[in-house]
Amino acid sequence: MPALSSSPAIEAEGLHKRYRSTIAVDDVSVSIGAGEIFGLLGRNGAGKTTTVELIAGLRRPDRGAVRVLGLDPRRDRARIRQVLGVQLQDSHLHAALTVAEMVGLYRSFYPAPLDAAELIESVGLTESRRVRFEKLSGGQQQRLSIALALVGRPRVVILDELTTGLDPQARRQMWATVESLRDSGVTVLLVSHAMEEVERLCDRVALLDAGRVVALDTPAGLVGRVGFAQRVTFRATEPVPGGLLESIDGVEQVRVDGDTVVVEGHGDLLQAVSVGLVRAGVVAVGTRSEQATLDDAFLALTGRRLDNEEETTR
Ligand SMILES: Nc1ncnc2c1ncn2[C@@H]1O[C@H](COP(=O)(O)OP(=O)(O)OP(=O)(O)O)[C@@H](O)[C@H]1O
Fold first, then answer.
1. What sequence ranges are listed for the domain ABC transporter (predicted)?
2. Cα of 53 to ligand 1 centre, how many Å?
3. pLDDT reading at 148 higher than 70
4. Which residue minimizes the CA distance to atom 29 of ligand 1?
5. Domains along the chain?
6. Helix intervals (H) in 28-76
7. How remote is the CA of residue 187 from the centroid of ligand 1, in Å?
């Protein structure tokens, strides 16, 4: 096998998967470098889970090819199992086994597994180590499935919806776990629909929509495609004179929805808008300023927000 540093850890080319009438994955190609944290971000049903199942060798693509550390995940199953850790949504684990028993069982599959007590502690399950899987909360089950993905010291890890259903503290703990994986050179493929998580953790992100990669870049690179950098929102106590906001330096777009005004643009927008309103004698209340986010990038690229509740907003 060639030196890992010079060859991608994961290479998928032209992946295609159809379930009856649904095209779940449509010509997806990604090349993920060793030691990278790579995010697959998209709405529910975008094809994220199917894509990682194809990469992990759990499903057969209709077309396309996959290599993980130079191995074919479907042909080289035994070797893949030693180097690839997979945590999928809805893992069906043995309901009657306790946390400690499950970790013990999985440790037996690997030549140099992680220390059981340390692993259980790292996912915050020490107090629950004698609790059976079926009695764990959803968040605890999820943390156990992550521990089991890591137990064999994999060089590549696939994590599907890492922190869905976890409380904020457990979520931060999981993020720290992923960051320490990266620090030790492990390649992480992270599936998520939580943009905050992706923005914080990922070196690069593929935005997936309706089975296709619509953009692939660093989080900052994706946000840079939005067309504006800042958004200022306020409520006007009286109508804003026509053209006033549009004439302010840096303003790109103005939207008015009832008494709420949204201004998008570049530079020190908050300062510029505030000064412009004061000069015109307009009193603004509830003013807030935000940076453009991955969600804005997703909206700009697909016309829909990542958040499934909110359909097209412009
Ligand atoms: N086993 C299956 N049989 C039929 N259709 C499927 C199957 N698995 C997924 N699909 C469909 O394929 C599409 C992609 O699903 P997939 O689970 O890969 O998306 P996802 O982005 O992971 O979504 P989620 O975040 O909801 O898991 C969806 O339309 C889904 O309904």
1. 10-235
2. 11
3. yes
4. 45
5. 4-218 (3.40.50.300), 230-291 (3.30.70.100)
6. 48-56
7. 24
